[in-house]
Predict the 3D structure of the following.
Amino acid sequence: MIFTDVVYADREDLLEKLSRSLWEKGFVKETFREAVLERERKYPTGLRILPYHVAIPHTDLKHIKTPFIAMVRPKQSIQFIEMATHDQVVDARLVFVLGLKQSADQVELLQSLVDLFVKQQVMDRLLKEHDVEVIMRLLEENISEKGLSV
């Protein structure tokens, strides 16, 4: 699931709209929207990675029906609070919403994502590419996690 060049008012708007889409497609339970918003408030997910800041919102496994990774490239960067802080703002250019069914998958997936985030050429392409199939291929080639729908 790839969403590009969508206009969002703020991170809550992004998470609400994406949650609705994920629910309509059968990937999450109705409880996902409130759970991901609440978790983001308590445990921010913005990452200050150069050259492009990102965010990786997620929530408890019990709100997920089918494992997935959703990539969102908003029209303008979206402010997220930096991970491990409660007041440092990160202007995220890409947002990766994670839906996992097994906690054991989380460490490997997060490592694959961090490896992706530091590949400047791949990140440049993800930010500029308009063809969703090309974006999908880039993600599949650079995220080693098996059994997840992008």
Notes: Strands lie at 2-6, 46-47, 54-55, 68-74, 78-81, 89-92, 94-99. Residues 90 and 137 are 27 Å apart (CA to CA). The longest helix spans residues 11-24. Helices lie at 11-24, 32-42, 104-117, 120-128, 132-142.
